[in-house]
Predict the 3D structure of the following.
Amino acid sequence: MNNIEKVKILEQKNAEALLLGGSDRIDSQHKKGKLSARERIELLLDEGSFEEIGKFVMHRCKDFGLDKEYYLGDGVVTGYGTINGRMVYVFSQDFTVLGGSLSETNAEKICKIMDLAMKNGVPIIGLNDSGGARIQEGVMSLGGYADIFYRNTLASGVVPQISAIMGPCAGGAVYSPAITDFILMVEQTSYMFVTGPNVVKTVTHEEVSSEELGGASTHSTKSGVTHFSCANEVECIQNIKRLLHFIPQNCEEIAPVYPYEIANENRPELNNIIPENPNQPYDMREVIAHIVDDGEHGFFEVHKNYAENIVVGFAKIAGRSIGIVGNQPAVLAGVLDIKSSVKAARFVRFCDCFNIPLLVLVDVPGFLPGTDQEWNGVITNGAKLLYAFCEATVPRVTVITRKAYGGAYDVMNSKHIGADMNYAWPTAEIAVMGAKGAAEIIFKREIASAENPEEKLAEKVQEYTEKFTNPYRAAHRGYIDEVIKPEQTRQKLIAAFKILENKVDHLPKKKHGNEPL
């Protein structure tokens, strides 16, 4: 065989690998509203940047007829390329080859790019579309999953890990995305669950569809498993690209900084957001919109449809990435509860892992009371948020816009738990509890013995309000660094984050803390 013939064989194999499981199966994907594994990579990466690894890998199983069924690539496309010029490693599961099932060799390909990503300090993006473990291989496929889980755990906090669920993801397959930093799902075409509808019906006699049990809507609103629910695969991939815009390549770097010329940063619109009535709601997103940069650098919300009483997401201030955590008075008065505490804690920990400064906007009346909360562990779950803030060593800035009551004042990045700069608007109310509740306790006997108890209560509420429900007692103590006009907020934040950009803080030497899981 001469050299020309050898090159022809290579060209034939390259062409065969590009066919995936064949045109009929690719057409079937398209009819379901899904792209092929290679089409997804083309959309995700900069044009012409993809370099494939393991294109000719094939499985080694000879049982149950698999010795007659071989495909180049073995059901997953792996390699590296760039997104907006920044390097990423990517794997894209191929549902057209044996349902994208995970085999021993399939897992080896994924593990190889994970190892390379760790060595080179580059994000890992997984495009998941798989029927699960390849049953014909038995324990070898299960071992492959465990190899991936182990690497997910080692990579956690070292390089960003992003999982897009673009088809089925069931059984053991769900645990790899669960360990990663962000999960995106596609409505109507993707689902995640540990046990499927058939098993649920057998064990609990519940009738439930795959979509109801583990679809994008379910996981973005009820369980909080997914951070982004996307209308289609194109939107999903665009969200991955936008997410990378705000985060660094690894734990040793900072997120990309964009050119910004400081001009007039006064925002008079902020003066009119807080209602005169302290019990009237407003949207914290309005505050955020007037604080952050415009356009593509504006607020990119995470977990938007889950635990809506707290808002988290990324933005740029003067071209620099920050993570924002804000109570949302428009939902449950912005109260903290189990779900919102866990949502915010997870986000805070991600930002701290990857050197992203934190801005905390506070309007919180306390923790949600009730048997449901107490019996489901609001104590330990609320402590997760407290722990996350206490442990964070990135620059941390707090702005109290209105209420900051009780233990929730402490938890929401107060000066006492290590915040660097704490501001308050003149509308801030910093107290142990609301004025009415406090007056009823402090002046209980006086009110009870009064000729007109209601009038006396109103008088004492007013007395408590004037004395305690303002930012000045905290400012006198130094717990608040400055009381500022709302319109000054953006310029104060730009200055604060600028002075804190070289902050160095160290935790006590330890193996790791014992977080209240």
